[in-house]
Amino acid sequence: MAILLVADLPADEHDLWLRCLREAMPGETIVADRSLADAAAIDVAVVAKPPPGSLTGLPNLRFIQSLWAGVDRLLQDHSIDPAVPLARMVDPAMNIAMAETAQWAVLGLHRRFFDYQAQQREARWLQHDQLRADEVQVAVLGQGQMGSTVADRLRALGYAVEGWSRRSGMPALAGLLARSDIVINLMPLTGETHHFFNRDRFAQMKRRSALVNLGRGGHVADGDLLQALADGQLSRAVLDVFHVEPLASDHAFWAHPHITVLPHIAAWTDARSASAAVASNVARLRAGLAPEHLVDRSRGY
Ligand code: GLV
């Protein structure tokens, strides 16, 4: 049997993945070009942003491993047989990278480093008040692997951190948003969380609080975010993800004085550590065990 890699990535990154996967699974045949293997021999697909339709015509496909933690795009691809088990990427190195981004954003917001950066461009010497970390309430929305690592590491920095997931219920969310200075989004993107951050949600948030979106662009209604910033309801947004990526060069977010844009790098999938995670799941499959971190399609993640 053979493993097919389908990754819509720049050539050098694609080659790195192929090399790391082959090193992690020396006993497996791994191809990145479908014409190099008999379609019937392919039983596993390892995918990163696969173009829609790229997994059709594989009659013996029995497992799909995502190289991305978020599987929203894969679940929207109706050419993928929903009966084939699909696993999310769960990699401790990625969780830590995500926590580093969250720590940077929270420190920058709390200590006003983003404002000082802007002040420097204007040669403006202005000292702002300093709160203690324990006086800053941080809400982490999404309590999966990444959300919990982020919450733990922010707590270790001394912040007042509270986690929330949809299981905690909407009444709890309203109370948390009303008292949080910083809201970090790490929820999966599903039908239920699409445009979760809209006008009504921003209105529930504490006045002059900040949004850090490390989930998906689809979680945020862009126009409502711009309005909440214009109204002063939100003080700042730090965004790593967007509806359309790369973010168009004429998008209002780029030049906005109160938006910090990152090019979807909050937690890069590391080819070395993630290949080990793939190898472990493939080994489980070959041993007749269920792969880990399978997606529950009814839940949407
Ligand atoms: C990146 O956004 C991922 O889902 O891994």
UniProtKB/TrEMBL annotation:
| Highest taxon in the source lineage | Bacteria
Where does the D-isomer specific 2-hydroxyacid dehydrogenase NAD-binding domain start and stop, copy by copy? Answer: 105-266
Q: Name one GO molecular function term.
A: oxidoreductase activity
Does the UniProt entry include the keyword Oxidoreductase?
yes
- Would I find Magnesium among this entry's keywords? no
Q: Which UniProt keywords apply?
A: NAD, Oxidoreductase, Pyruvate
**What PANTHER family does the annotation carry?**
2-HACID_DH_C DOMAIN-CONTAINING PROTEIN, D-ISOMER SPECIFIC 2-HYDROXYACID DEHYDROGENASE NAD-BINDING DOMAIN-CONTAINING PROTEIN
What is this protein's name?
Glyoxylate/hydroxypyruvate reductase A
